[in-house]
Amino acid sequence: xxxxxxxxxxxxxxxFKLVDLETGDGDKLTHKGFLLxxxxxxxFLSQIEDKDLLNKHNWQxxxxxxxxxxxxxxxxxxxxxxxxxxxxxxxxxxxxNRYITGTLEPDGIVGQIGGVYxxxxxxxxxxxxxxxxxxxxxxxxxxxxxxxxxxxDPYNISNKISLIPxxxxxxxxxxxTNPNISNQTIKNSEPVSYTH
Length: 196
Fold this sequence. Notes:
By secondary structure, this protein is α/β, with parallel strands linked by helices. It contains eight helices and eight strands. The longest helix has 19 residues, at about 30-45.
């Protein structure tokens, strides 16, 4: 996402724009994911105490998926979309070895997705190519499904990348933006329901 200051509309309901809709590259699921992310961010911004701060600047977010690999996007990308927008707004970097998926609800809960195992193979491939640590952050609602798939996993994904279940956007953003993901960082952001 890019944040454009001074050129976007001043109306809060026009501050989020999905470029892919105009170019014809986005599909209905991508639009749904973008709307979920926008709803969460609108709720998040409404809780900021200094309301004038948001209205002092004329800003708009422009979000675009440069490549949609085999249907990636949609509502499972809503947590990633919201993270990228809030990262830009807050000038807080997201580290490149972090991958996230999850359906972000307007109340900040990160919900279940489809194909969690298949999505975990992306960070695995990057780890294989770069020989660097990679972290896959996913909804804890998918933990059981992922664990079942990992039993017969030919790639041994769980030994190559960190698999980190989350329940909320706050947990996700902390893990995406913390420069060091340690066992303590993961423990501090763990969902209450997750046990080792």
